Amino acid sequence: ARSENPRRARRVRSPPGPGPGAGHVISAHLGQAVLLTEADGRVGQGNFIGTVVTGKKLLGNGGGDGIQIAENFFRPSGPGVTIGGTSPGAGNIISNNRVGIFILSGSGDVIQGNLIGTDMTGTQDFGNRLAGIVGTGDSHRLGGSRPAGGHGPS
């Protein structure tokens, strides 16, 4: 069940896979909406981060990032994290945060098929305050061939 109640934050241990209704609404937090540490091989798909469940209205996430990936900072080996994907419904909507996706070192993360800084139609500019994607490290895959692997406006 999805909740659009900004006062009730939920801890999400393992994000669901792609598909209509499979994701979470992760909005109205004061800090990071999703913080992945020591999360080798995790997959985040089909989520609404910074918006309501329809993806057409903003809730945002205080002063924090939409998704912050720090797993390789703490444990430098292992597979990276996948955010989004090329399957229908795999992409996340990541809007109205400090930074949409912030990657803190490491390598091998895959970021593709997300709508970053826009609504679910890709036509409304919802933005992220500083940037869409910021990263350090190497060998990350950002995007892919459009339309499935690319990203919306940032």
Key terms:
154 residues, mainly beta, 4-stranded parallel beta sheet, 1 helix, globular
The sequence of SSEs as H and E is EEEEEHEEEEEEE
Please tally the β strands and state the result.
12
The gross shape turns out to be globular
Distance between the termini: 29 Å
Rg from alpha-carbon coordinates? 14 Å
Please give the largest β-sheet. 4 strands, parallel
Widest β-sheet, arrangement of strands:
1-4-7-10
User: What is the count of DSSP helices, taking H or I runs of 4+ residues?
Assistant: 1
What number is the mean pLDDT?
A: 78
What is the helical fraction, as a range of percent?
A: under 10%
Going by helix content, strand content and strand pairing, the class is mainly beta
β-strand amount: 15-25%
Note poorly predicted spans. 1-15
Descriptive overview:
The structure is a single chain. The chain has 154 residues and is mainly β. Helices cover 3% and strands 22% of the residues. It contains one helix and twelve strands. It is globular. It starts with 24 loop residues before the first strand and ends in a 12-residue tail after the last strand. The N terminus is likely disordered.
Can you lay out the helices and strands and say which pair or pack?
Blueprint lengths: L24 E2 L7 E3 L6 E2 L3 E2 L17 E3 L1 H4 L7 E3 L8 E2 L4 E5 L6 E3 L2 E2 L14 E5 L5 E2 L12
Parallel strand pairs: 1-4, 2-5, 3-6, 4-7, 5-8, 6-9, 7-10, 8-11, 9-12
